[in-house]
Amino acid sequence: MHACRNCRMILNDEKICPKCQGTDITEKYSGEIIILNVEKSEIAKIAEINAPGKFAIKVR
Ligand SMILES: [Zn+2]
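^ thats the input. predicted complex w/ zinc ion below
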């Protein structure tokens, strides 16, 4: 699994991030959070995530 360094979305085998079209992909991330409802999610606010999906908590 990989994560986009730009928006932290977790990707499977994509070479380009489908969310931000970024190509800065890293294997080095830690933690995963799944955001279902951005408006209702406190985690999304804390992690500064503005879209539903699966995201890494930290990328290096
Ligand atoms: Zn991205």
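The beta strands are 2-4, 10-11, 25-26, 29-35, 53-59.
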